[in-house]
Write a sequence for this structure.
């Protein structure tokens, strides 16, 4: 008898810049097959350079879980992988985006504050950035401790970090819910292999026109401090 891999329900991701959609569909055990991951990597390619790079399967599992939680709402991707040159140009060469460890996104019809709180309380050893004026949440994986920051910049503006992100949250009158402990998704082990290293061999694609408007403006910083 043929072995059949049973798949979980697919969820749909859409990129804001290119309006591409991708069906993310792990096996029932939470793992993603090679074909899925190739599609995932391509889907999250650098939209400035078209360069494709491995993007963490752990991050795929997290996005899957987020999409399942906000069932019926589309996950809209602002940025995934970012070529190193682009990260440098945006003034943040240490960003986790060029390592394929980060994604900026929002969920259609869901307040970004709600998304932010869900992400912060659900996942650990992650970096979470809240971009209230650009209306997205940044999530990166592969950290030893959690990090959180708020960047008040709007699209296309330089970073404008909150000096006191936790204090700012409290003044929002939407107190962060206390963490609910949940098990990590099953597919975690594949992440953070060394294929995350970036290395440009070969020609860099031509610089694409900078697209004005609604995409990710700037880089995401990754404060290493844990405040
Ligand atoms: Zn980011």
């Amino acid at each position: 008898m043929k072995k059949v891999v049973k798949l979980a329900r697919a969820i749909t991701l859409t990129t804001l810049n290119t309006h591409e959609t991708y069906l993310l569909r792990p096996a029932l055990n939470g793992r993603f097959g090679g074909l899925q991951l190739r599609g995932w990597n391509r889907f999250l390619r650098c939209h400035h350079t078209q360069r494709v790079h491995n993007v963490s399967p752990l991050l795929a599992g997290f996005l899957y879980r987020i999409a399942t939680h906000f069932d019926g709402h589309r996950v809209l991707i602002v940025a995934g992988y970012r070529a190193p040159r682009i990260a440098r140009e945006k003034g943040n060469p240490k960003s986790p985006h060029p390592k394929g460890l980060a994604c900026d996104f929002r969920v259609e019809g869901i307040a970004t504050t709600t998304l932010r709180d869900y992400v912060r309380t659900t996942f650990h050893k992650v970096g979470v950035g809240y971009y209230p004026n650009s209306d997205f949440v940044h999530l990166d994986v592969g950290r030893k401790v959690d990090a959180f920051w708020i960047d008040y910049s709007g699209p296309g503006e330089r970073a404008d970090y909150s000096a006191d992100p936790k204090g700012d949250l409290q003044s929002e009158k939407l107190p962060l819910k206390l963490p609910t402990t949940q098990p990590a998704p099953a597919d975690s082990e594949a992440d953070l292999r060394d294929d995350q290293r970036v290395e440009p061999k070969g020609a860099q694609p031509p610089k694409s026109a900078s697209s004005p408007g609604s995409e990710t403006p700037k880089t995401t910083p990754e404060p290493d401090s844990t405040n």
About this structure: Strands lie at 11-15, 21-24, 75-79, 102-107, 126-131, 136-141, 147-150. The chain has a mean pLDDT of 80. Residues 14 and 165 are 29 Å apart (CA to CA). The pocket of zinc ion is lined by residues 97, 102, 104, 129, 138, 220 (CB under 6 Å).
